[in-house]
Design brief:
It is a single chain. 35% of the residues lie in helices and 31% in strands. Helix 1 crosses helix 3, helix 4 packs across helix 9 and helix 5 runs antiparallel to helix 7. It contains nine helices and 16 strands. By secondary structure, it is of the alpha/beta class. It has a five-stranded mixed β-sheet. The model has no long low-confidence stretch (mean pLDDT 88). Helix 8 links the parallel strand 15 and strand 16.
C-alpha cells in the first residue's frame, strides 16, 4: 500500500548530509518537497568522531524540514556512503530428489546461509541481501525456479554488511533525534538500481564515481550489487600534479581549469592566458602541457581502478557497460576527452557518462524500493 504521508530520507556521504522529504504527486509518482545539503562535520575517516555535533546537525535540519513541510517525522530512511562496509558472497544448495522447489525450501536455504554469515562476521550487521544466481540441476536459471521439478538446487547470495559499532552509533544518533531508522540503504545499491531501471539493456555494468578525494567502483549483475571498492584518490590528484609540474599553486590551477578551454582538438600552440598571472610574472605555459599531465593521471586512475585491479579480473573479461560520474564538474568539462581516451584500450567496454543522481527520477526508485522492495533483494 502506498504511503499517504511525507517520507524523510537522510543521506550521509563523504562530503555532505542530505535531507530529502518526498510525497506522492497527482500522478502517483513521488515528488521532492524539501531538499537541503549540509557540509559533512563530525564524521572523519568513515567514523562518527563527534556524536554531539552530528546529533545537533541532524536534529536542527530535521526541525527545518518539519517546519517547511508542516509534518512531524517519527522515522527516517537512512542512506549511507560514508561508513566502512563490506561484502561477502556465499552459495547454498538443496537436494530435491525430483520434487518441486518451494518457497519454504528457499526460505530455509536463505536462513541457513544468513546463520553462517552471522557466525563468520560476528562484528558486522547485514543491511542488504541479494539473490544473485540460481541453478537447477547445474543449469543457471534467470529467475528463482519456484514450482519447477529437479534433483539439485543451488543459489548464490550476496550480503552487504556494516560494522556493528557503526550501526549502534547510528541508532543512538537517530534515537537522540527522536527518530526510528526505518531502513538503512546503501547509496551504491540505489545508484545501481537507478541505472538498471533507466538502461534496460544494461543488466551487467560498472559504475565509477570520482570525486575530489575518493574514487568508488561497484559492479551490478542480474539486478544485484555484487562488488564495490573505494580508493583514496580522486581529481585532487590531477590538480596537485599539474600544480607541481607547472609550478603554480593549487588554487591558481583550479582557476585556470575552471576558466580555460581544454576541449579543443588542437591546443598545441595555445598558452595559458596572461589574465591568470595578475599577481606574478607571466610565464609561457602551453595548455597542451596541462592537458597531457591530466591525461597521464586520469589514465593512471583508470588503470588502478580497473585494469590492474585484481578483484575485477573475472568481471572485465565480459562485455559490459561502464557508467562514469565525475563529481568535479570543471575537471570533467576540461578533460572529458582524457576520460574517454583512458577507456579506449578496453575493446569490450561501452562508456557512458552520467550526471548527479539527486533528482526526482532517482527519488522515485528510492521510494519504490522502500515501499515495494527490489526484485533480486531477498
Amino acid at each position: 500500500m502506498n504511503q499517504n504521508y511525507p517520507a524523510l530520507y537522510v543521506e550521509i556521504n563523504r562530503n555532505e548530509y542530505i535531507f530529502i522529504v518526498s510525497d506522492i504527486a497527482d500522478d502517483d509518482n513521488y515528488k521532492i518537497i524539501y531538499f537541503k545539503k549540509i557540509p559533512i562535520k563530525g564524521i572523519v575517516n568513515n567514523k562518527i568522531q563527534d556524536l554531539n555535533l552530528v546529533t545537533t546537525i541532524i536534529k536542527e535540519n530535521i526541525y527545518l524540514a518539519e517546519q517547511k513541510t508542516n509534518y512531524t517525522f517519527k522515522e527516517a530512511i537512512l542512506i549511507i556512503n560514508n561508513f566502512t562496509c563490506s561484502s561477502i558472497s556465499l552459495s547454498g544448495f538443496k537436494k530435491l530428489n525430483g520434487i518441486q522447489l518451494s518457497k519454504d525450501h528457499v526460505s530455509h536455504l536463505l536462513n541457513s546461509i544468513k546463520t553462517n554469515i552471522n557466525e563468520i562476521e560476528t562484528k558486522k550487521k547485514i543491511i542488504h541481501i541479494f539473490n544473485s544466481k540460481f541453478f537447477l540441476d547445474n543449469k543457471e536459471i534467470e529467475n528463482m525456479p519456484i514450482g519447477l521439478f529437479g534433483n539439485f538446487y543451488s543459489q548464490e547470495i550476496f550480503f552487504y554488511l556494516i560494522d556493528n559499532n557503526d550501526h549502534k552509533n547510528l541508532k543512538v544518533l537517530f534515537d537522540r533525534c527522536n527518530l526510528r531508522i526505518k531502513r538503512i540503504l546503501s547509496k551504491n545499491f540505489l545508484e545501481g538500481a537507478h541505472i538498471a531501471k533507466n538502461n534496460l539493456n544494461s543488466e551487467i555494468f560498472f559504475k565509477i564515481r570520482i570525486d575530489k578525494t575518493n574514487t568508488e567502483i561497484f559492479y551490478f549483475e542480474n539486478l544485484s550489487l555484487k562488488f564495490f571498492q573505494t580508493f583514496k584518490f580522486g581529481t585532487d590528484l590531477i590538480i596537485n600534479d599539474i600544480s607541481k609540474i607547472i609550478a603554480l599553486d593549487v588554487e591558481k590551477v583550479k582557476d585556470i581549469i575552471i576558466n580555460s578551454d581544454f576541449s579543443k582538438k588542437n591546443i598545441e600552440n595555445d598558452l595559458i592566458e596572461k589574465r591568470f598571472f595578475i599577481e606574478q610574472n607571466f610565464r609561457k605555459i602551453k595548455k597542451k602541457l596541462v592537458n597531457d599531465i591530466a591525461d597521464a593521471r586520469i589514465h593512471e586512475i583508470i588503470d588502478l581502478v580497473i585494469l590492474n585491479n585484481i578483484n575485477l579480473k573475472s568481471f572485465v573479461k565480459k562485455k559490459l557497460t561502464i557508467f562514469i560520474e565525475v563529481c568535479d564538474q570543471p575537471n570533467f568539462k576540461s578533460f572529458r576527452n582524457c576520460y574517454e581516451k583512458s577507456f579506449a584500450k578496453f575493446n569490450n567496454i561501452e562508456l557512458k557518462f552520467i550526471e548527479n543522481f539527486q533528482n526526482n527520477d532517482f527519488n522515485d526508485i528510492v521510494n519504490t524500493i522502500v515501499q515495494y522492495g527490489w526484485k533480486n533483494e531477498a
